[in-house]
Every structure is written in C-alpha cells, then in structure tokens.
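User: structure tokens for this one?
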Amino acid sequence: MFYEVAILGLLTISILFIFLYLLKDTIFGINFSRKNYNGILLSRAFLVVILFGVWSVYFLGVDSIPVFFVKPESIFYSSFIILSTFNFFLISLVFFSKLFFHKYFLVEDSQLDLRNGKFVLIIFSVALLFCVLLMHALGAKHAVIASALTGNDLLNVRMENRYASNVPTMLASYLKFLYILVAALLAINFKNTKISLYNKIAIFLLICYSSTLYGGKAPLINCFLIFLFGYLYSTNQHINFWKLFKYSTPIVLIGSYILYYLTKIQFTDLEPGQVIEYLLLRISTGQMMGVYEQLDLRIHDFEYIWRSVPFANIFLEYKEYSKDLMMYTWGSYKDAEEVGVMNSYFIGEAYAIGGMLFMLISPIVFGLNYCISIFVLIFILHRIFGLEKNCSVKVIGLSMAFLFPLTGDIAGMIFFKQIIMYIVFLIPLIFVVEVFRSNKG
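Assistant:
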C-alpha cells in the first residue's frame, strides 16, 4: 500500500504543480497579483471532484461506498489511470494555451472597459426570459416551487419536466447556457453605472429563477460563485487567500443550506444526519464513481460515437453512454424514463467509444478541443457582440467550468458538437445585434 500511496501522491503533486504554477498566468489558472480568479472556479472540478474524489475512493474502499462492478483490487489501477490522464490533460492546456492561444488565454491585469456591457447583458437577459417563458408554455414546471406548493417529491417533478413535458432537450441546454452567461455578464457589469439598480436586481432574480427551474442542486450555487468572482473583477479588487476565505465563506454557508434544503425535499424520508451523509458522499465520490464503474465494467461499443456527431439525433436514434452506464448500475431494476444519467470523467466514454487506445489519447483530444471551444466563445463575444477583449475573456473564464464540465462525457468535444451547439444558440442573438447595428448605421 505504501508504494500505491507514493505513486498516487506523486501524480497528485504533479497536478497541483501544473495547475497552481504552470497555468497560473493563463485563463485556467489562479494568480492573485493579476486578479486572475478563473482557476478558483475550475478548482471545484480539478481539486474537489477529481483529486478529493480519487483519494476518497482509494481510502474508503468499496465497503464504504455504494458500488456495483468495482472490485477492491482494481481501485489503485483505476485511480492511477484517472490521475495520469488528468496530468496529460493539464499539460495539453499549458501547451496549447501558450503556443496557439496566448493572445487570448494569457491573462492581463487591466481595467475592464464596459462600453458595450449593458447592450450585451440586456440582449442575453431578454433571451433568457424568453427561454423561461417558452419552457413554461411547453409544460415545464418550476421544480422547486411546484414541489414546495404541492408536496410532491422533487425528483418526481424533475422527471416529469424531463419526460412528461414537451420541452426539447436542446431548449433545456439553451436555458443552462444562457443563465450561466447572464450571471457572468451581470457580475462584470455590477459597477456599470449605465445599468440601473432595478435592472440589476431583476436580472439577478431571473438568474435565480431560471437556474432552479429544473430543480438541480448545483446550478444556483454555480451562479453565485460566478457572481462572486465576477464582482471582484468588476470592482477591480486585488485579493489574497484570506480575503478569498472571507468572501467565499458566506457563499459556502448559503450554498450548503441550499444543498441541504433541496436534498431534503427531494428525499423526504431521510433524517437530517442521513441528508448530510448523502451530500458528503455525493461531493467526495458521487461525481467520480461512474468512471470507476466503467473501468471495471468496460462498456465498449463504437456506436457511441454517433452521440458526438453534431445533429446526428435528427437522422437516427443513437445509444447514450452515460444513460447505459446508469442502467447497468443504479437503474438496473427501473425503466429508463425513471432514471437520469451517470456522471463519468471523460475517459469513461472515451473507452466506451474507442477502447484503451482512445482512452489514453483522449486527454490530448479533449484538451485541444477544450481550448478551441473556449477561444471560439471569446472571439464571438469580442468580435461579433462588440464586448471588449478583456471583458470577453473574463466572461468566458468565469463560465467555462460550467459550460464545459470535466465530469461530463467526451462526446461534446470529439467533433466540436458542444461548441457548434453553443454557436447555434448564439445565432438568434447575433441576428438581433446585426439588426441594431444596421438601424444605427
């Protein structure tokens, strides 16, 4: 066991060195002297979900964690694969950021220029409001409000929204895309005197409403975090670790209560102690158990590649890896409509598509496509919407941890399906911008 701990420890130190030192001057890093806080939001995935998750699984073992196919003897092997591939992913970010995207990805400490900030914020906010109204018109209920008013189980309301309403999956994805970007845009415009306090409050309430519409526990907290660090950009404040601790403590406490409350109304039979135990397991191991299950279960079918092809769902029905993984594990005795999907760090789906070889090269593929996707969004905000370059970098820097999650699958990255979807989302807004420009001209 000593050698196993030593190997995993070296891989962990390597991850911390790359993240905290080699990436500190990039859009992915943390650099207090340059007011670069994006990496703090990424650290949830980098440090909490992946590092803390791996070490929790390793020390707790299969006797303390609900598992289905994970064998005790395979935990070290799986942990080694996860940490090694994550090292390669971070190295690819360093390489691509500094070689190809340095003009946009190397962070500058400069004052924000908000000359078009109000215009862009209003356009995105109106789109978000329209999206919410359209979803209600198609039968979606606000899961938290509906559950509180009717006494219905929150999980049942969430499943009804997903399967019983007429809301297309694409529209639900559009909602998430919009409330994340609106949260970032509002945050960096917090000190923009061209936007009235009433408008700021109205947009803030819209973000709160839309991010909790589907009843998820994390989206509202994510928006609060985006707003916190965007506020620091807006006020041009330098902070250090202790100031960060002071600012983030209230958010953590409020977020913890929100998590507890939403979990309690989702699982009404759980006692308070059981709710806390459930949340601790979800935070420490829940996001990573999918990849551990996959590395022992070894689901493999090249047909999963179709999910990564843009617009393939228009022409054919394809299998979904994360859904199949859930059906093999937690959903094995349920109907497919009764369960959601299972989170799995991106190498899980890479193995399902292309076996061991694709799994090993997937960190490079994911890293390159990750950088290209982020660059495209920055470029569109800057060049098409007219947001100043530094503002565009800040907005996408605040948003990228939630727009491109590492604990999702790799399907959205292989053929740029995710960024193509985001571009499609932006086309109506780009049309509005062009109409305003032509009228102005």
